[in-house]
Amino acid sequence: MAEEEPRIGVYICHCGENIAGAVNIEEVKKFVETLPNVVVVRDYLFMCSDPGQELIKQDIREGKINRVVVAACTPRTHEPIFRRALEDAGLNKYYFEMANIRDQCSWAHWHEKEKATEKAKQIIASAVAKARLLEPLEDRYVDVTQKVLVIGGGIAGIFAALDIANAGYKVYLVERNPSIGGNMAKLDKTFPTNDCSACILTPLMVDVANHPNIELITYAEVEAVEGTVGNFKVKVRKKQTWVDWDKCTGCGACTNVCPPKARVPDEFNEGLSKRGAIYIQFPQAVPKKAVIDADACIKCSGRWFGEPPRTTKDGKPILAPCEKVCPTGACSRDEPRNPEGELIELNVGAIIVATGYKVMDKKHFKEFAPDSPNVITAMQMERLISATGPTEGKLIVPSDIPKYEQWKKKVAKGEQVELDARKPHRIVYVSCVGSRDERYHTYCSRICCMYMLKQAMLLKEKYPDLDIYIFFIDVRTPGKDFDEYYMRCRQMGIKVIKGKVGGVQRLPDERLLVRGYDAEIGKPVELIADLVVLATAVEPSEGTVELARKLGINVGAEGFLKERHTKLYPVDTMSEGIFIAGCAQGPKDIPDSVAQAKAAAASAMSLIAPGKMKVEPLVSEVDKEKCSGCGICVPLCPYGAITMVNYNGKPRAEINSALCKGCGVCAAACPSKAIKLHGFTFEQVLAQVRTLAKRGVVEVL
Amino acid sequence: MEMMEEGVPPVLNLSKLAEREETELEKRVAEIIKELGAERIMYCMQCGACASICPLARVGFEWYNKKLIKALILGLKDELLDDPTPWACVACNRCTEVCPRNVSPFEVMFAMRRLMAEEYAIGTLAIEGLRALYEYGHAVYMAGREARKKVGLPEKPPTTDSDPKALEDLRKILKQTKLADLGLVPME
Amino acid sequence: MVKYGLFLGCNISFNRPDVEVAMRSIFPALGIELDDLVGQSCCPTWGTMPSIDVVGWCAVAARNLALGEEKGIDLMTACNSCYGSLNEARHKMLTNPEIHRKVNEILATIGKKYEGKAKCRHVAWVLYKDVGLEKIKESIKYTLDGITVAVQPGCHFLWPSNIYPDKEEDPFNPVVLRKLCEALGAEAPYYSKLIDCCGMGALRSTDPEKSFILVKEKMECIKEEIDADLIVTTCSSCLIQLDDAQERLRKEGKLNFSIPVLHYVQLLAICMGFDPEKVAGICVTPRDEIIKRILENKR
After folding, report:
1. For A90, A564, B68, C216, which has the most beta carbons within 10 A of its beta carbon?
2. What's the domain count of chain C?
3. Per residue in A551-604, pLDDT tens?
4. pTM for the whole thing?
């Protein structure tokens, strides 16, 4: 409780032209001088600047004032600045109130200057009314859990985890696929250096697996998140593998015996080949362990999950081929199917979301003959030219992949046969398929121009006879060394055409008739291609919105995770303690993803490093003497911060100040008015309301 | 004004075009086209998808969809009045179907026709069609009596051709449209 | 019986009345009653009111549509241009209240109004959806066994897909006309220039030579890829263009083969046993051979 009478200093900011342009500062000053308890009124061009803050500090040091009202911009950005000024000058920083006469006054009413001035007076009066009733409060500190959860094991997640782990903190890296590596593991080479993607990625993946501070939890998904910054409780659901990873050596014997009927499109090869129900995600997988996809499994030998095997007449168990062939006995169907999987709980202080992207399926784009096997997405092309891809890097038209697979079988049997598959001679790239398009996504997917050039360059280097056309709308190559890369491509004879392809028609021999336009010459063009590659739009990974809801973070209109501020806080979210990085935040290439990952890691570390976290005292508190024990407040709290406790033999509500976010719902609902929200008490809020209702008259009660 | 020579000059003087829009027309040509029915002309990013499949572009007409849109946005108008391309548009709408900005280039071609009609830059065949529409209620009217008799149909189809009241109704409608304002066909 | 207003359009009424006879024969036999829609006029076609002003276009179209609306029936047509013009106009009225209002103001002066309920369907969709392939199969006396058909749905049948009451699942790979032909026993394969424009209409009136380039490309593709015996279309304009332009190209030595052209309703009428002279008697490229072949295929 304040011993002395409140002596309020009111500081009115011009904010350059932002406020002074609509509000008559002089007139407002004169009015404010008449308000009760106001002893000092000053105005300045930029209150938040050094000299501006000095005005306040000076008045405090000289003992003129013991309460401060700053009438300026928004507390969202500037409240901390002024509170610090009070603290520096030796005044309790919660003796500060901010009146927003910019966003809520001058900016909104720019063309009605008289009314804006009137409104500014009333806003400041209500701030003064509250300032008269402000109480000194003390910051609190809570312990933070010095561990971080990284969701997503792509390049961004990997770098975030490594940076934090190297600093000495524990990291949980949760990845929903059996292996980490993300989309980068699918790439053949990366632009602009044309580094082999696997070569630069796998050492990092191995580092992650071997790092003493990183606990790698793959084939698992985040189920629920509770708690708050510094103390998150995360439930993670580990999916069933039916392969004991402690025993599995990743030899792959099981994958070879899975029968054809159980084969489904291989996600890693973007559907260009098939994998078995039991599979290892890709040859360089980390961890290299097999899993059984229960939906694809056809339960050979009657091996249903969770049931004992049938037996022969001699009582020997009849096992599935994958179980039989496993050298370590890791593969077993004994566990019953449990869609819940295994739930584990992790306690962390900060979370980084790096869940990456996927590319749009070609089936949406009917004008490009998506039914043709020789019309593929760029990611499928990336797999086609990869040494670990469906044709081990042999460039053949996708319509001949079945021929390739038959040839492989024959070779495996020892037959000496030549591969009779058609090599493409003419390849066409189509840009902006689904991007910059009002019918699908209006954004530019950012990486396509460069990756089309990259694929074309790699192909042209390996097969100089190839005739490659890239149809761009615009050529966007802004990064470091990118434009030089583009020029090299042109010099190599890759045909760059500015003009979008409007139609692709299937021809009888599975070639394609491409109808495009050359905007540089100004004529429609057409050609017959062996292969058409569509640069389909980049979208956030499947399930991004659902994950965002679980975490309580926002998603933008186009589906990507929303950053706190487009310019200044690209890796923060509106939820403290949760950071985002990589393509989950928006389409970008690898260097930008890594930069964001490192930024998010640094932010997460600066949060957990001190070990304690300052928490604002603007939380709710129950006066147990007034509380009637009705319990209405308990289910209302969105943060689960209220419980009933024993107080002198009676049940009374108690609020955990570490969880309380100061939303005020409980205080508003309490029928006994037993709950006080510090910083927004009933008396303070009512005083503001009364002042506004009386159009700026501050009651002195 | 020097730009009024035949057709589009080899070099486009953009400042003269802009001045003409500012002083003579007092609005941008693109605005005029918008008002004539092509509301989304300014959304065009000149990607060329519409041109790649336009039948007119493929057979050699000059100011087909993409190019016409750009010309209009730059302020060309009078220079285009002699070009027959807009009158050749078959309204197939394949351009509308592939446009990533929902511009509907077809609407631009037809808005251009409406602009040309205002300037009386309209060919005789079109005028004939309009005259026939007013006189008989049919744009294509060849006295195909013989053909109808040959296949056993009554000489006149059950249209305005055989229903004078309906023809009157149609004429009454046409008299209340821009066709009457422009005075392109005699309407007694 | 389902009833539709038969919207004829100028070309069918005067240039190809055999198509009209075909429709008047098949639909009653298939359980679809036809209303003459007495007093109908030009839709209005693209070269007329749509080229002058939007409200005028919609007013003329609305008068035609109202003829059906006041009887509580929809229209159907065998001419793609009419199908396109009427549906574009209807779409404009339904999405732009200002236009709709102005149109009804004009219609009020002749004692009519158009609410927007009545729509114009295409005879091919009525046959596909209302009648159904099974019933068509049962109703024919002659089949097209052993005959290869090149289908020409025509542009306005497909685009712009958002304005039509019936839509193909894939407007770049249409299957409805192919299935309708297959129901008659024919092979109706895909060919790469299936959806290409035939060049009729304004293109032909402005520059016939240019429009014939498109016909030549189309015909050559059909000959090379599927060697069709017959071209079947759902559009009266495509019918006239492909039928007539072939002859011109042959005269100029630019084409050295001949493929007869029929509108689907004509083909169906022949298969149902109606008199070919009446339902398919007007043509430039001879049809006798193919009609003879069909009539030899008794079901």
Report:
1. B68
2. 2
3. 999 999 999 999 999 999 999 998 999 999 999 999 999 999 999 999 999 999
4. 0.88
Which chains contact B through at least 3 pairs of Cβ atoms less than 8 Å apart? Answer: A, C
Query: Is B57 at the interface with chain A, CB within 8 A?
Result: yes
Give the C-alpha separation, A582 to A152, whole Å: 10
Question: How much is the ipTM here?
Answer: 0.93
Give, as one character, the DSSP assignment of residue A541: P
Mutation to test the B interface, candidates C34, C42, C86, most B Cβ within 10 Å: C42
- Kindly state whether residues C63 and C205 are assigned to the same domain: no
Chain C CB contacts of A508 under 8 Å are: 192, 225
> Which token pair is C116?
């927007």
Nearest residue on chain A to C189, alpha-carbon basis = A508
Distance from CA of A493 to the nearest CA of B (A): 23
Look at residues C63, C98, C122 and tell me which one is the last residue of a structural domain: C122
Amino acid at position A624, single letter: K
Q: What is the pLDDT of residues A73-105, one digit of tens each?
A: 999 889 999 999 999 999 999 999 999 999 999
Superfamily of domain A361-539: FAD/NAD(P)-binding domain (3.50.50.60)
Q: Are residues C111 and C138 in the same domain?
A: no
Q: Which of C6, C37, C41 to mutate to test the interface with B (most CBs of B within 10 A)?
A: C41
Residue A155 · residue A180 · CB < 8 Å: no
**Could you write out the DSSP letters of every residue in A47-69?**
TTSHHHHHHHHHHHHTTS-SEEE
Domain of residue C244, residue span: 133-296
The pLDDT value given to residue A651? 94
SS3 A21: coil
- Please say whether the beta carbons of A356 and A592 come within 8 A: no
Average pLDDT over residues A412-420: 92
Q: Quick check: B143 pLDDT over 80?
A: no
Instruction: Tell me whether strands A220-228 and A231-238 are parallel, antiparallel or unpaired.
Output: antiparallel
Q: Would you tell me which residues 87-126 of chain B have a C-beta closer than 8 angstroms to some C-beta of chain A?
A: 94-95, 97-98, 100-102
Report how far residue C226's alpha carbon sits from residue A162's, in angstroms, rounded to the nearest whole number.
Answer: 61
Task: Please tell us whether the domain made up of A8-138 is placed in CATH 3.40.50.
Answer: yes
Q: How confident is the model at residue A3 (pLDDT cuts 50, 70, 90)?
A: low
Domains A147-223+347-356+541-612 and A361-539 agree in fold:
yes
Q: Tell me the nearest-neighbour CA distance from A508 into chain B, angstroms.
A: 20
3-state SS string over B34-80? Answer: HHCCCCCHHHCCCCCHHHHHCHHHHHCCCCCHHHHHHHHHHCCCHHH
Check CB contact under 8 Å for C192 and A505: yes
Q: Cα Rg for chain B, rounded, in angstroms? A: 20
For residue C69, being part of any structural domain is answered with yes
pLDDT in tens, A10-56: 999 999 999 999 999 999 999 999 999 999 999 999 999 999 999 99
Reduce the secondary structure of A235-280 to three states and give it as a string: EEEECCCCECCCCCCCCCHHHHHCCHHHCEECCCCCCCCEECCEEC
Q: How far is Cα C60 from Cα C50, in angstroms, rounded to an integer?
A: 10
Taken in order of first residue, the domains within chain B and their CATH numbers are 2-118 (1.10.1060.10), 124-182 (no CATH)
